[in-house]
Design goal:
The protein is mainly β and about 425 residues long. The protein has one helix and 33 strands.
Amino acid sequence: MRQRPSLRTALSTTLFIGFALSATAAEWARFRGPDGNGIAADRDVPVKWTTTDGVLWKTPIDGVGNSSPIVCGGRVFLQTSSPSGSERALACYDATTGKLLWSKSIPANKAHIHPRNTLASGTPASDGERVYLAAWDGQDIQVHAFDFSGNHMWQTNLGKFVSQHGAGHSPIVYAGKVYLANDQDGSAVLVALDAATGRALWKSQRKPFRACYSTPFIRSTPQGPELVVASTAGVSAYDPATGALNWNCDWPFAGRPLRTVASPIAGSGLIFANAGDGDGSRDMIALHPGDKKTGKSGKLAWQERKSFPYVPCMLSLGDLLFTVNDKGIAACTEAQTGKPIWSERLASAVTASPVLIDGKVYAPAEDGNVYVFSATTKFKLLARNPVGEPLIASPAVADGRLYLRGSNTLYCIGKTFVK
């Protein structure tokens, strides 16, 4: 029988991750932060706070949306929509004070969306020079680039978006290219744009099923970096320079194909992806990555079809996998085998993805609380922190501060300001 990971192993891995990511500790420049794994190198974020003690600042958000905040260059960026749906906007705030520095409007129209979606659900991404935003105008998806002063640099129209639930895609930027997985009902294209000009550099057609919203990530391999994408079609890896397919692993669904909303992550030598449906169907796979050099395809390691989340993303730490599912149940699982270690209820509903900070999981919930628990083989709830309004968007972490987007307010949680 496989021995369960020890507390010492988990904590040692936490220290290693913190060291490895220290160079990017001050940035959270894409959805789910560095590498898209939801892990922060910061160690100074408070574990406990109240609505008055520990809130460094809070500022009202002009508009609505589920776009998560990103932090780059001392600024916080997020996407909003006017309540009427007549415009989208990219808003920029000072990360230290919360002051709104600028907001740039993008003309749009109201359109049909899922009741739990919004017209501004996609999260921006930044390379420190420009901010990139995939905005849906109600018909077409457009990728926009702004500089840090709010000047509009370029716009690329990717064409009509078709889905019964609306859009919600988040780009990433890497090595001078902006990537977007444009999965729709009946169409799926992975797109790479030149970050400086918006010019399309390559497009890779993918097998289409249902609209998906997961965000790709860059994975390092001995053969070089590869772009990992998850959707109903499965998990695939591409050459980020050319768009050539490195390897693929089809998703072995038991019944009809499900939808990926959460983003895939890597850890413990595996890649993890989760999918689901509004009818309660769930499916999660852990797979051994393929290999470009040998032409080997990805191979399923294990699969679970019941308790894993649909919308919230997962967290990997050493030999452990931590999740908080849509029903608010937190769980710890053996990453290599899928064997459950523990599960505990936190709240009644969770949509935001949790983050891992200094060996602790921070899980925002729709009840307006951020639950903090130890990332170990024994469940220990450390805090239940009130914010005062529902939390749907996933948090950002930078410079020892936690940034939370509530339904109406942007919050900065921390101990002290970092000059």
